[in-house]
Amino acid sequence: MINSRLNKNSPLIYQVVLTVIYLVGMIGFSNPEWKEELQPTSGVILYISTCIMALASKNKLKFMAFMSIAFIIGFGTEAIGVNTGYLFGDYQYGSNLGPKFLNVSVVIGLLWGVLALAAASIIDRIVLFNKAKVFFSALLMLLVDVIMEPVAIANEFWTWTGTEVPIYNYICWFLIALVLQMILRKFRLNEKNNVYDTLLVLMVVFFSFLNLY
Known about the structure:
By secondary structure, this protein is mainly α. The protein has one domain (about 1-210). It is built from eight helices and four strands; from the N terminus they run H-H-H-H-E-E-E-H-H-E-H-H. The chain has helices at about 1-30, 30-40, 40-55, 60-85, 105-125, 135-155, 165-185, 195-210; strands at about 90-95, 100, 105, 160. The strands form two sheets. The chain has a two-stranded antiparallel sheet. A two-stranded antiparallel sheet has the order 2-3. Strand 2 and strand 3 form a beta hairpin. It starts with a helix and ends with a helix.
């Protein structure tokens, strides 16, 4: 009986934990006295978010399969971008997102998968987008990147050569997001999940709020 209740309430628990984490992050990053100490933990927040998504997933095997695919594609394209400039533009990662491999913060590979699954979950709930779910899911991923860029630059997650983020970055972002969404739908690896939805909403609120500072 106790285990049954715990399983039933698990999604709510995960949502509460995520909400607390991101609210603390919003408060901390908006406070100059705490911001410097919190910046190096930024990657950890995404690692924890990914773990919570894994726990909340309804099909663990499908979750792991897609996250592996997304990591390979996302991390691979980022490595090409950082080391050659052929994708996204001329940029480099800082140290605040944690360990790097091939000059790319490892956690970025997870970010691609997290955003793809969460965006697909939200779009699945909107009947209006039924005939173009791949397109609108990719568009939602792009929107998150647009909101995220100023905050990421300000907190030295990554930096660009020049004063503005190139349009080419957003074009590449959308196309790669499109590929991930096509794979997600083709192999039916997506799922409607309240925890996924909550995480994406929290990320949008988090970055939107910090854009005000």
